[in-house]
Amino acid sequence: MKKIASLFFVFVFALLLLSIFLFLASSKRMVVVQEGNVKQLPIQMQAGLFQDSDCGMVIDELKDASQVISKSGKSWFFHDHGGMIKWLESKEFQESAKVWVMSRDTKEWIDAREAFYSVSDDTPMGYGFGAYKKKSDGHIDFATMRLRVLRGETLRNPLIKKQLVKE
Fold first, then answer.
1. If residue 78 lies in a helix (H) or strand (E), which one and from where to where?
2. Cβ distance 156 to 126 under 8 Å?
3. Which of 21, 46, 98, 167, by CA, is between 20 and 30 Å from 28?
């Protein structure tokens, strides 16, 4: 009886391992970093296939997506501009990198350093900075947005949120 139970256990364990292997082999591979983009042009992203380089979450929606591309052609992807800024801050190539953001008003990739940013949009990680091609009242430039992220002056800060969003 013990032999049958042991064989049954080994059989079930082998079947479980085989199932896991087949599942992993057939699952989608997430794009975390893409190489070879030496022209530093925005990569056409597809929701659900790219992974945020800052927090590791799947990028399910592109309206607040951003891309950082180094001169070597490596591209990293983000689903919130605040997380992109925090990630980029520690990189030695931060000044020479090309940064693209998805524009909320034109729905196209635009140069992040030329974009304007709202301060109170609902964004995936709650920083609040939606990117726009056309400036509107209350929008700030890239340098100001970057500074606010690094100082913690975002919607993630309850005191700032209370000032910006009248609830």
1. strand 75-78
2. yes
3. 98
| Residue 58 neighbours by CB distance under 10 Å | 14
pLDDT for 19 equals 65
Q: Which helix (H) or strand (E) covers residue 35, if one does? A: none
CA 59 – CA 69 distance, rounded (Å):
17
pLDDT score of 22: 55
pLDDT for 14 beyond 80: no
Euclidean distance between CA atoms 119 and 82, whole angstroms = 11
Which among 94, 155, 157 has a CA at the least distance from the CA of 129? 155
Average pLDDT of the segment spanning 19-45 = 79
Q: Helices marked H in the chain — which ranges? A: 2-26, 81-89, 142-151, 158-164
Total residue length of the chain: 167
pLDDT in tens, 89-132: 999 999 999 999 999 999 999 999 999 999 999 999 999 999 99
